[in-house]
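Changelog-adjacent note: as of this version, every example in the card shows the full chain rather than a window. The one below runs 281 residues end to end.
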Amino acid sequence: MIQAVPNSSWPPRGVHLAWRTNDAGRIVLPPVLEHRVNVHGSERTPSSCPASGFRYVRERGDVDVTPSGETSAHDAEVPSRTLELRISPGLLERVADELGTPRERAGLASRKLVRDARLAHIAWALEEESRSPAPLGALYIDSLGVALAVHLLGQHSAVRNAKEPSGLDALQLQRVIDYVEAHLDTALSLATLARVAGVSSAHLRHWFKAKMGLPVHRYVVHRRVERARVLLLQRTMPASEVALAAGFAHQTHMARWLRRELGVTPRELVRRHHFPDSRCA
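Full-length structure tokens:
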């Protein structure tokens, strides 16, 4: 049984995410048009290969990569859950083009029971974002989608040795920073910021983090929190308007991120600034 992961801004472009509940016994995944990445979501699950009879134990985070058009099967002794990502071949082809990588690298190799911490981390991050009460939004989701494609091309391609992308120069980086600052109150996307820099989404995601020390979506969150902090301390508009002016979906969304980034609510922030010696609750 497959249970889709709900989210108003879902899914990432070219990626579908769902939880699969598996009964004990033979688990067969028929061929589909998309590539499949299955991340084991249960604890120790005794299993075996139907073809060879080889027995093994699946651990939480173990990964199977099944290319488009191929089937996958294994036997499990107990029920289990799997987080299944279906990735459009078109997404891998687009990212391969952006990286300047030959199209033939967009094909994936079949991998079973792989310990790939980076791939599992991206999958869990996508799943967590889908359930978050304070989602980072389209920019973060697109970044994860591109990160997923880049990792698959680099580590699980049927053809190895991808060419590394070149970096961002100072002017390109400054254009992105200036654009973010001027458009914090709008719905920013990775594709838009990539166009501003004059590079691909994959290049921007990789090299922005290399230059700035944090991913582009986290930089945007930091700038939104800082703008909200400044506007709240000016006390010239209500918190609901501050939230929109800083690019948050609503006041509650802003409050969650201020607490997460600064450790205080908007009210606590203002009270501590204007009444530093106050002990009132």
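Structural remarks: The chain is about 45% helix and 20% strand.
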